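ESCALATION

Customer reports they have been waiting on this structure for their group meeting. Please prioritize. Original submission:
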Amino acid sequence: MTRNLLLALIMLGVLAGGAPATAANAIRIKGSDTIGGKLTPELAEAFRATIRPDQGFTIEALGSSTAFVGLFDGSADLGESSRPINEKELDTAHQLGITLRELVIGYDGVAVIVHPSNPVKELSVAQLSGIFTGKLSNWKQVGGASGPIRLISRPSYSGTHSFFKEKALRRGNAKGPEEFAAATEWMEENGAIIAAVGSDPTAVSYVGLGWVRPQVRAVPVVARPGEPGVPATTETVRTGRYPLYRALLMYVPPSPQPSVLQFLRFVLSPAGARIVQANGFVPADEGSPLPSFLATVTLPAAPVTQPTAVVTTQPATVASAAAPAPPPATPEPTPPPQARELVRVFFPFGTVTLTSEAQGVLDSVAAKLRPGDQAAIVSGHADTRGPVEVNRRVAVARAQAVASFLASRGVERKQLRVDGAGADSPVATNDTPAGRAQNRRVDIELVPLSK
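Update from on-call: job pushed to the front of the queue and completed.
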């Protein structure tokens, strides 16, 4: 029985020498293979080993869309998705009277992978669109050796598929007409994709950064014409330089069981962050406030030691070193109003990803800041869709993405002050799509540094 034939079902019963678990007390998790294929089983195993030895889990990792199916029909206690909930799913939740809470557990880059012998040095987003739509069918057309291109993709219900289609095939236009070429081969499992690409010099595909293995090579992706390709690494994802990155999300239904809340609290703890890091992802920002429904959930006070089977090579300080730390606060100067300059960048719904347009604007901001005589007050904002605490977390994450990008362009951290206002400071109505688009923003206020 394999996941390709039936279910991606993993029963974590007797683990780490703990007490036997039963199906009756199991936490049922459905959704993304990027998250659930390897990361979630390791989080579950560590939770059993350090918190609740009697806790069972069933993990079904068939794709992000199945998270919402399970949450809506009651067959899942948690949903995992590598893309934000879409409008159709939001409508279904509203019709059912279900309010879902969203948690960001980390960030992932989607790596474009080829066989190690493939000589292609880098690929632009435009070239990726041409390749996966079938307009470019020979490697020679993109700087490789002459030969046909074999296309491999995740299936349509995969969040990675949806993300890659929007960001690569449609070049950031969610409503674009581009579709995968008819010759594309569909594979459910990331492991199967790695094996296929690793054994075929003509193949190309894409996987979450945590799935990249030595038998394949991740090709650097060009964010903008004229710039060098950016490699897919945790550092380029953390700073926002890599153009194909996204948030890893967990969705929580109303009235979850106490064991579910305790597991989520563990996932967002430093111990959970180390496991996220060990799987090749970027942990959620350290120091971000917990959502209100988790604020009173406690874990053992003693430091949590991870089983060696889960974290084998990561030092205890990895999570705090890798997570984007808030920039040191710079005392706000008090110049006259005319000395302040406001720059604004915008974000697509449900994302903290900098668009190419936003990066171009921020390059200009960085050039003004590099001389060192100005500071930037970076304030994140969101529209009113979604729970208040989620909007505030998203707003902070957007501000931190902007600050990290500016730092990657040579701006000193001491020049940056970050804060998030959530949906509390709209500049337009939240009753229309156009107005909400104006409110999903980060404001960068440039002010002279005090002498």
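Sent to customer with the following note: Confidence is low (pLDDT under 50) at residues 1-22, 302-339.
Escalation resolved.
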